[in-house]
Specification:
heterodimer; A: alpha/beta; Oxidized Rhodanese, domain 1; 24% helix; globular; B: 327 residues; mainly alpha; Helix Hairpins; 65% helix
Chain lengths: 84, 327
């Protein structure tokens, strides 16, 4: 993780995680190469999630990511409720 | 964590719904959460795609039987297995002996048929042991249908004996694995506690700096950021401790953790409100704070899966309350 120095504090978030657009997800909804990951808690996932996505609550990422997403180079799209 | 190709769908599921795109709802796939506790996890190596697919109920019958047998052996203690073995040997011995009452005795000892007498019973039991241990001296011989029974006995005896040996070996191994797990668990718990107190004292000294009027916002920012990052990690550990208590810590230990957690959260929200209006928060600080809020919000007496003692429940609620004040 990039340690933000005070100088660039307040600047735009470091672009270490690229963005994926809604259209791309929509287009590749049937593409098994794109792994959709729902990082919301279990209850939220149970209520609604994008089809074909797997649930990996943020709190459990460290423990379960290796199990759930064994491929480090896989094409992964993560989403939550709304990025804040 | 080494993932190279992760992209974030910033607008999230809210935007997805707004666009009128399809939504699915289903209970989350419940999977064992915390690591460690050694158990056979046949599925853990499957790819995510294979995981989400519903389990097909077409496991072959023989496989089911095999599993049932393994489960049975698993559930028996070594002593029980030994007695099962002994029972089988005696039972077969009795069956051999019973043939001695018929007109065609099933066993012959040096050419003479074994009759249904006390002597015959001893010989039959002797034959049974010799067969099942696959020693096979050959002084007593089976005849006719008894041959089938003796072969069956030999095979079953070997299998049960193998299970017994395996049981002893794996028992030792399980013990070792459990010991290792316990040691690491204790060590981890200690570390969480220490770190939490360090975070707390760091936050308190930042709060003091802040109360005296921040003269160097940059230095405060850096200190606050590293404290918050460490705090986030430890909070995650506590969260998973509460959510997947494979081995619950002692109540006193847990209480100490929760007290420190609530205090740290409260101090953190104090520090944040005390910072001057013009204080710029670095993105890393902001996202770490978001994590802390989200995790701590899930720590309360009602939301954790287990019921804890009232004292613990109260501290959990305090922690959640404090976390909600973090702006």
């Amino acid at each position: 993780m990039e340690q933000a120095s005070p100088e660039n504090a307040g600047a735009a978030p470091a672009a270490e995680v690229r963005e994926i657009s809604r259209d791309e997800i929509k287009r590749r909804l049937d593409d098994p190469a794109l792994l959709l990951v729902d990082v919301l808690p279990r209850e939220a996932y149970a209520a609604e999630h994008i089809p074909r996505s797997v649930n990996l609550p943020l709190a459990e990422v460290e423990q379960r990511a290796p199990q759930l997403l064994p491929e480090r180079s896989a094409d992964i799209a993560a989403y939550c409720a709304k990025f804040t | 964590m080494g993932y190279t190709n992760v992209r974030h769908y910033h607008a999230g599921i809210a935007d997805w719904k707004e666009a009128g795109l399809p939504i699915e709802s289903a209970p989350a796939i419940v999977e064992p959460s915390l690591p460690v506790e050694p158990q056979s996890t046949e599925q853990s190596s499957l790819s995510p795609a294979a995981r989400t697919r519903p389990q097909q109920p077409t496991i072959s019958r023989s496989r089911q039987w095999g599993n049932a047998l393994l489960d049975l052996i698993e559930s028996l203690s070594p002593t029980q297995i030994f007695f099962v073995w002994l029972g089988m040997v005696v039972l077969c011995g009795l069956l051999y002996w019973l043939t001695g009452f018929s007109r065609r005795p099933g066993l012959v000892d040096s050419g003479r048929p074994i009759a249904g007498t006390l002597d015959g019973l001893l010989s039959a039991l002797y034959f049974s042991f010799v067969t099942t241990t696959s020693v096979g001296y050959g002084d007593v011989l089976p005849l006719g249908p008894v041959r089938i029974l003796s072969i069956f006995e030999a095979v079953t005896g070997l299998l049960i004996f193998g299970a017994l040996v395996a049981k002893f070996v794996s028992r030792r191994q399980d013990q070792l694995v459990r010991d290792i797990y316990n040691v690491t668990f204790e060590a981890r718990l200690d570390r969480v506690q220490t770190n939490l107190h360090l975070v707390l004292s760091e936050l308190q000294s930042i709060a003091m700096m802040c109360d005296e009027g921040v003269t160097q916002p940059q230095r405060v920012g850096v200190r606050l950021e590293s404290a918050v990052l460490v705090f986030g990690g430890e909070l995650r550990a506590i969260h998973s401790l509460l959510y997947s208590p494979q081995r619950a810590p002692e109540e006193a230990v847990l209480e100490a953790l929760l007290i420190a957690l609530a205090a740290a959260l409260r101090t953190l929200s104090d520090v944040l409100t005390c910072l001057p209006v013009g204080f710029n928060r670095a993105p890393t600080l902001e996202s770490a704070l978001g994590n802390i809020r989200a995790l701590a919000d899930e720590i309360c007496a009602e939301c954790v899966p287990q019921v804890y003692a009232p004292a613990l429940a109260m501290w959990m609620d305090r922690a959640q309350e404090a976390a909600r004040k973090i702006a």
